[in-house]
Specification:
Helix content: 25-40%
Radius of gyration: 18 Å
Structural class: alpha/beta
CATH class: Alpha Beta
Strand content: 5-15%
CATH topology: Arginase, Chain A
Distance between the termini: 23 Å
Number of helices: 10
Oligomer: single chain
Length: 319
């Protein structure tokens, strides 16, 4: 569609006929689907489904991440006019991407949530469609991992985070965003020798054997060396990427539940993500964007950019 035709377009979220291609709808108008992709539960011909998980009942500090998917979608409307910078290809044009909407669940029956989310993701994967998830707090990654592992087997985990989320918790019924990695390891979901955590800057006694590239090391060796190190750890293993927005320093992402100073800049994160091109992702998520604590929407903007970078990584090995 030519830019001069934009004035005739409205609500690509409902009216888009071709799931591929850029969008020139006014950023300030229309329904805010992710990257102006069409809202649909029909996955016929779809390569990648973007879905929101508005759940924040597993946090140890500030709630608000339930509003993350909505904010990320709105922030993403600034991006579908041009191919993502620095990738050399446009996933919006090469792949059929749909906004699958949000997971529906009963917020008053928290104990039912993990199974509901796992089934939601499994239903998408059963159609041989990839998933890109917008959280929600970081607990959501555990049911998502379960669904992916049911399809692909144990995966390498690439985790961007200020916290390791490996605090000991052997009660598998507890729902806690600070223990999901520990549980994933104990459940055999993660290939720890091929897994890596990036940006860590909080103390934890046990990282469960997962490689750690903490924030001071990122600052010391630089994004290119970090990306090379991550690729060396993951190798040719199938991997899942999870990006907790608190990996970024609060200067770049204040809108999150447990901010920690000394984190990555948005420029460092972008360079590392782009440096991971070629890693074989089955899917990914961006979590812990908490709009009530955001300023000027800058955390949501960061979250939307991270989500696009994950889409680029997902598509890189499928071109």
């Amino acid at each position: 569609m030519a830019l001069e035709d934009a004035k005739t377009q409205i609500d690509d979220a409902f009216r888009r006929e071709d799931p591929r291609g850029l969008s020139y709808e006014n950023a300030f108008a229309g329904a805010t689907s992710f990257l102006r992709r069409k809202y649909t539960r029909d996955l016929t011909g779809i390569d990648l489904a973007v879905t929101g998980v508005p759940f924040d009942q597993a946090v140890t500090n500030r709630t608000g991440a339930r509003f993350g998917p909505r904010a990320i979608r709105e922030a993403s409307t600034l991006q579908p006019y041009d191919p993502p910078y620095g990738w050399g290809y446009d996933p919006m044009s090469e792949f059929a991407i749909a906004d699958y909407g949000d997971l529906a669940f009963d917020y008053a029956k928290v104990w039912e949530f993990p199974e509901a989310l796992q089934a939601h993701i499994a239903g998408i994967l059963a159609r041989d469609v990839g998933t890109l998830v917008m959280g929600g707090d970081h607990f959501v990654t555990l049911p998502i991992l379960r669904a992916h592992v049911d399809k692909y087997g144990p995966l390498a985990l690439i985790q961007f985070d200020a916290h390791s989320d490996t605090w000991v918790d052997d009660d598998m019924e507890r729902i806690d965003h600070g223990t999901f990695v520990y549980k994933a390891v104990k459940l055999g979901l993660i290939d720890v020798e091929r897994s890596v955590q990036i940006g860590i800057r909080t103390s934890c006694e046990d990282h469960c054997g997962i490689h750690v590239i903490d924030a001071p090391e990122v600052h010391r060796i630089g994004p290119a060396a970090v990306a090379e190190k991550v690729r060396g750890i993951v190798g040719d293993a199938l991997a899942y990427l999870t990006f907790d927005i608190d990996c970024l320093d609060p200067a770049f992402a204040p809108g999150t539940g447990t901010p920690v100073w000394g984190g990555l800049s948005s420029a460092q994160a972008a360079a590392i993500l782009r440096g991971l091109a070629g890693v074989r992702l089955t899917g990914g998520d961006v979590v812990e964007v908490s709009p009530p604590f955001d300023h000027g929407g800058i955390t949501a903007v960061a979250g939307a950019h991270v989500a696009v970078e994950i889409a680029c990584l997902w598509g890189w090995t499928r071109r």
